[in-house]
Each structure stands twice: as structure tokens, then as C-alpha cells.
Amino acid sequence: MPELGTLSGGAGAAGVAGLLRLRRTVAAPAVASPLPSARCRAAGVVFPDGGQLVWGRQLRPALLLPAGLVPWQDARRQTLRPPAATAASPGEAKPAGLLEKYPAVVTGFFFFTWYFLNVIFNILNKKIYNYFPYPYFVSVVHLFVGVIYCLLSWTVGLPKRAPINSTLLKLLFPVALCHALGHVTSNVSFAAVAVSFAHTIKALEPFFNAAATQFILGQQVPLPLWLSLAPVVIGVSMASLTELSFNWIGFINAMISNISFTYRSIYSKKAMTDMDSTNVYAYISIIALIVCIPPAVIIEGPQLLQYGFKDAIAKVGLTKFVSDLFFVGLFYHLYNQVATNTLERVAPLTHAVGNVLKRVFVIGFSIIIFGNRITTQTGIGTVIAIAGVAIYSYIKAKIEEEKRQAKSA
């Protein structure tokens, strides 16, 4: 039988040994059967060690040997079939799953989860500051819980940890430093003023981004973008003049936060790596945590040890105090992670609208939950500022889309 050939020597033995090492894919017991040596020699098939072939579910004997060489084939006419996953022809299209059938629903769910986590974080964060006004320590807790979450995720391989070296650390350190400074100053602002007012001030972030792009990066910002920022500045100014919770600590720290996050964006563009966003954010969180610990110990450490922890525990109890800190850190990390995953799924214009709507949700829910009294002028100023951010985001997204189309053309 020349078409079968002769399995002898090193190559043949290696091939049979490889077949012997194949593992079954189902729980059915393997069937072992020695091949009659006379019939093998007659067919020209030689097994050097006179071994047995083990037939599992993955192996189809009819494909490996002639029909007459399978001793049980007459008694068992049904050939063992491969698993269903391999039964389909290579060109046959797989049926679309739920994620492929309804992408808009899935994206909407991502947005809802992002907003929900963000609102819960802001509300819980402010409630903690009402009985534990130590924003530096709380900022460390936010990052610490997030780092523990990342380490556990890496341990189970969801996601798999990306390797890092000194070169990547040098690229990520400025990003993490700006992230740490922006995070701490945001929390100082949230502790000092109403959440709604802090987010109104942070609506100025596009103005700082445009200024940095124009005067630091040297990239020309179109006139329509500058004009769209006018209502943002006017609205924030109107809201600040009559905000009942206004104080300079909250205002100045919110402004520093805007500047810090602007520089974070600049350094992020310089630190583009092949690493996925989940791993990048994990490494940034670890570095930011290390950066935030010394200021927290120096600035708030003595007060915390003397009466800070005791006062908080006396007001709400140890269990609630610890659980509040844990959950606020968890919600902080999750909302940032979900925000990243959400924004990776959508176009720049949807991204811009989503960011604006997120701020509207947070401001609205914080006013409802905490019952903050705002003046008519503050309300009008807030609406004008948010509308200005929406216009700016829309124009910026359209310009970026036109640039991409021009490059691809």
C-alpha cells in the first residue's frame, strides 16, 4: 500500500509518539488496541517498538489507517466524530452573539455604568468629608484600593500584567505625577466646597487644554474653539460670584487640578506605548500612590493620629468608617476604569458629549442628594458653562474627525 508509506526510523517514531501524547477532550475512556503485526507488515506499516495506538475522541482512526487495519471497525460502523467546534467548515460564518447584534445597547450600558459609578463616588466622597475632612488621606485611600484591585486582577490574569522597564517608568512618571497632583487637589476642592460648584469650576479644564496646546505645544488652536470657550469662562465666573459655598481654598485647588490634568494630557501624548489602557492606568495608579503618601503623612499625619481617626469613629462607628473608605476607593477605581473602556468604544464626538453629560449628571444628583441651595445666578452660570463645554467639545471633535478624514483620503 504505497500511498500509506512506511512509518519507520526517527521521523515515524516521533510521529507515533506525538499521537500517543495527545490528550482526550472528553471524559469517554480511551480504547487501546494492538495492531496485528502480520497485517501491519503486509500493509507496509512498521511500528519500531511494537507499541499501541491510543484512540481518543480527537483522533479519527479512519483518517489515519486503511479501513482493514482498524480491528473494531466492522463491529462499530459509526466513526468517532470531532467536537462540534471543529465540525463546521472553515468558511462557515458563526452566528452573531448578543454583543455583535446590539452594539448600541452594549455601549449604552457602558455609559450608564460609567455615570452610575461616577455619581455614587462623588456622593459617597462628599459624605465622608462631612465627618472626616482629610482629603490628602482620602486621596491615598482612593489610590490604595485601586492598586490592590489591580494587583488582584494581575494575579488572576484579568488582564495579564504587561512588563515594564526603566524606559517606560521614565515615560509614565510625569503622567503619574500630574495625575497624583490633580487627584489630591480635586479632593481638597471637593472637601472645601459643594460638589456641584467644584464640578462647575472643573468645567474650565477645556480652556486650560486649549491654552496649553497653543502656548506650550505650539499647535495652532482654531478661532472657533477659542470663541466656544467664552461662555465657559463667563458661566463659571457668574456661578462663582454668588455660590453660597464659595471659598478660596476650594476654588484655587480646583484650578490647580485643571492645570494638573492638562499637563497630564500633554505628557500622556508623549508617553504613548504599546501597553493597553488597563495596564497603563494600573502602573500610573501605583506611581501616583507612592507620590501621594509623603504629603498625606506630613500634612495630615499628626492630626489624624491625635484626633482625626477617633472623631470619625466616634461619629459613625469603626465598621462604617472603614467600609466607607473601602467603597469610595473601589468606586473611584471602577468609574475611571469603566470610563476608559467606554470611551474606547465610541467616536470622538460621542466621547465629548458623554463627558459633558457626565458632569451634568454629577451636578444634578449632588444638588438633589445634598439639598444644596443655589442662587438663580449660580444656576444660570452653571448652565452657561456646561453649554459652553458642550459647544467646545462638539467643535473640537468635528475638527479632529476632519483631520482624520483628510489623512485617510
From TrEMBL:
Q: Which keywords annotate this record?
A: Membrane, Transmembrane, Transmembrane helix, Transport
Name the GO cellular-component terms: chloroplast membrane
Q: Which InterPro entries match?
A: Sugar_P_trans_dom (IPR004853), Tpt_PEP_transl (IPR004696), TPT_transporter (IPR050186)
**Residue ranges constituting the Sugar phosphate transporter domain according to the UniProt record:** 106-393
Q: Which GO terms describe its biological process?
A: monocarboxylic acid transport
The GO terms this record gives for MF are: carboxylic acid transmembrane transporter activity; organophosphate ester transmembrane transporter activity
A Pfam family: TPT
Q: Which residues cross the membrane?
A: 104-124, 136-156, 168-184, 223-242, 248-267, 279-298, 318-335, 356-372, 378-395
Q: How does it sit in the membrane?
A: Multi-pass membrane protein
Q: What is its main location?
A: membrane
Per the record, the domain of life is Eukaryota
Name of protein: Sugar phosphate transporter domain-containing protein
